Amino acid sequence: MRVLVAMSGGVDSSVAAALLRAAGHEVVGATMKLWGGASDSGCCSVADVADARRVADRLEIAHHTFDFTESFTERVVDRYVAEHRAGRTPNPCVECNRHLKFDKLLGRALRLGFDAVATGHHARVVRAGDGRARLYRGRDAAKDQSYVLAVLGPEQLARTLLPVGEHTKAEVRALAKRLGLPTADKPESQEVCFIARRGTDAGRAAFLGARFALHPGRVLDAASGAALGRVPAVELVTVGQRRGLGVAAAPGARRYALAVDVERKEVLVGDEAALSTDFFALEHLRSTGEPLRVGMAVLAQTSAHGRCHPGVLAEGGVVLDAPARRVAPGQLVALYRGDQVLGSATAGAWPGHG
Amino acid sequence: MSAPLAGGVGAYLDNAATTPLRPEALEAMLPFLGPEFANPSAAHGPGRRARRALDDARDALGAALGCLAGEIVFTSGGTEADNLAISGVHESVGGEIVVSAVEHPAVLRPAEARGARVAPVDARGVVDLDALADLLGPGVRLVSVMAANSEVGVVQPVREVVALVRERAPAALVHCDAVQAFAWLDVAGLCAGCDLVSVSAHKFGGPKGVGALAVRASASGALAPLIRGGHQERGLRPGTENVAGIVAAGVAAALTVEQREATVARVGALRDRLVDGLLAAVPGSAEAAPRALRVAGSAHLGFADLDGEELAFLLDGAGVCASVGTACASGARTPSHVLLAMGWSPAAARGTVRFSLGWATRPDEVDHTLAVAPPLVGRLRAASTPA
Question: Which domain CATH number covers B110?
Answer without folding.
Answer: 3.40.640.10
